[in-house]
Amino acid sequence: MHRLSRRSVNSLLRYGGHRHRDAMPVASIGSSSINELGGERDASGRRYSILTHLTSNGPASTKPLKSGNMIPIGKRYESTAADISATDTPVEKYEYQAEVSRLMDLIVNSLYSNKEVFLRELISNASDALDKLRFLSVTEPQLLEGAAELDIRIQTDQDNGIITLTDSGIGMTHQELVDSLGTIAHSGTAKFLKALKDSKDAGSDSNLIGQFGVGFYSAFLVADKVVVSTKSPKSDKQFVWEGEANSSSYIVREETDPEKMIPRGTRITLHLKRDDKGFAHPERIEKLVKNYSQFVSFPIYTWQEKGYTKEVEVDDDPAEAKKDGTDDGVEKKKKTKKIVEKYWEWDLTNETQPIWLRNPKEVTTEEYNEFYKKTFNEYLEPLASSHFTTEGEVEFRSILYVPAITPMGKEDIVNPKTKNIRLYVKRVFISDDFDGELFPRYLSFVKGVVDSNDLPLNVSREILQESRVVRIMRKRLVRKAFDMILGISMSENREDYEKFWENFGKHLKLGCIEDRENHKRLAPLLRFFSSQSEEEMISLDEYVENMKPDQKDIYYIAADSVTSAKNTPFLERLYEKELEVLFLVDPIDEVAVTNLKSYKEKNFVDISKEDLDIGDKNEEKEKEMKQEYGHICDWMKKRLGDKVASVQVSNRLKTSPCVLVSGKFGWSANMERLMKAQTVGDSSSLDFMRSRRVFEINPEHSIIQTLNAACRSSAEDEEALRAIDLLYDTALISSGFTPESPSQLGGKIYEMMNMALSNKWSLQTQEAEIVAEPQATLEAEVVEPIETTTGSQK
């Protein structure tokens, strides 16, 4: 005899085993009915959960499970197992029940994060009702009798806080009213689509929006009472549904008031909560319609206050007439004034048509630009646009735009929430907070609309769930955006891309850092100044075309400006060989190029780092130089100590005596400067990355030759050692580094200036004074004979 596990016994006791003690004797729980796994089997080999109630006789019955405050979240299904011989054991099946008031509270307070979506959901339901009527009227034209126009009308009562939304759609019968509004998560649209799919004669209508069956209850976000009056063309009677926010029940009655009768369709009346009566303002309703339901395929009218100016006569004041003293018999010209006459009328709110649903060949450039200005509140025309439809595994339509300028006051390119991509599902606006999911951060400047029927949204339609569909959409959208930008770069008007680069160049450089997969698309779009093009930026393709036949790498130097870059000593030998060098003057340039690593199989090489190869290596000459100047390198390294990793003979200098280069895998001088300026920089990593510096000397320079002689004759001479220190400090500045002690450097320079200028002008002054004294004596001697001669003549 098999023993029950403790879990099985606890399950029996918890789920009502005590209620069936009389009907379930111990003998019935034997080895033939319960196996070691704690399950039961019927004759067909299916196993049932041990959690079900066991009875000794009778077939399986269905009873409600009284769960109290427990909210079941699913149903129990039968599971198959291996066929094991067993006797028939009767079971009881129970249906999960839900606590309606608690479920309604979850829908109203937890499902939606933004209250204003209630209007979007109600308009979507009205659009579905109109779509159903339009579809059914093809085979049943009598359904359109009584009200031929298919539209949606929204009227507000601001004083009483009431919003009324009326559609002339299919309406609902009594039973449909109970099934659709009385059953939570029952979607009439989903049921209608299933019927169409099952029908062989009818095709599916992709314009229908609803799918979850909870959109109607979003009305309770802003209303404490909702009244639905509906009339179906299939019924002679009009019925009313009434429900309140905090109630678990509702009322359905027949409409008897003749003034409230409608020919066909549904009228929803929302009695707003005290805190939400601001939604009853006509202008706010108009704004919500334009934001969420601008492109619904049926006209939406809102009840708006209008006004016009007219002139009316003004009665004369008797006192003023008497004061004027005019004759009563003379006819006076009557005074008039302008007043604004106000009136109310229905105003078409969704005038803009969804041009992305049209064939791109039929849409003009003017229409694209007008749609862009209206949708994104822009005043300048876009630089480029792309209208495309993607079919296959994922189907969606989209229009993308490249703006003419960056938004005013929004220069932060790391902000992922730009609200530039408006996501629609079946022409209904869902959200504009999906930038990070549909576009990478560096393409956040791209604006556009995306409309798809395949997006995996949550029930509130506010969260785009991560899925394979989203990844495919993202990849295709990014590809289209690159094609659009590439089209601008290949335009005959070079100024177009210069304008684009001025506004969005940093975004593409950020893409080089963050998006390794699209390096091949990003690299041709980059622009830089160079040693042969200091006024006009060039592309990497142009650089490669200008390369020397024996040039293997793409050379670059990072600096804070073009002036600093072109005057750096690292360029001297490359200028002589006419090798072009890119100037990276933007703070993000060096990081972007470092992440690219290469372009068209040519590596990027920083000319400010050690082991630079410019194609003129001569091993025999280098060996001779090392033998001749090896001792001065050792002498300088001994003096400089840990300040440098080594002292070497340079192959990149022509006119400068020395230069300080960075390690091959460390930071350059420009990067070190930028990292020091970071507010939250890590000082420990800074010390590590800047630890290796190589001091390179130019053996052809007179200063180095003089020091070489000093090294051989008097290596311990104090002036020679101080010259080495000053040489190193000077190389720090000329190479782009920051001296550790500017004051000490200043003192050394002053000392050298004093030595060079000492007594230079003071000696010349003394010599001039000595020469001036005999000249004065001679002049006196010359005067005397003149006076004597004059006297003798007299």
UniProtKB/TrEMBL annotation:
CDD domains: HATPase_Hsp90-like (cd16927). ATP binds at residues 121, 125, 167, 172, 187-188, 211-216, 266, 461. Keywords: ATP-binding, Chaperone, Nucleotide-binding, Stress response, Transit peptide. Belongs to the heat shock protein 90 family. It comes from Cynara cardunculus var. scolymus. One of its GO terms (molecular function) is unfolded protein binding. It holds the Pfam family HATPase_c_3. InterPro entries: HATPase_C_sf (IPR036890), Heat_shock_protein_90_CS (IPR019805), HSP90_C (IPR037196), Hsp90_fam (IPR001404), Hsp90_N (IPR020575), Ribosomal_Su5_D2-typ_SF (IPR020568). SUPFAM superfamilies: ATPase domain of HSP90 chaperone/DNA topoisomerase II/histidine kinase, HSP90 C-terminal domain, Ribosomal protein S5 domain 2-like. One of its GO terms (cellular component) is cytoplasm. This is Heat shock protein Hsp90.
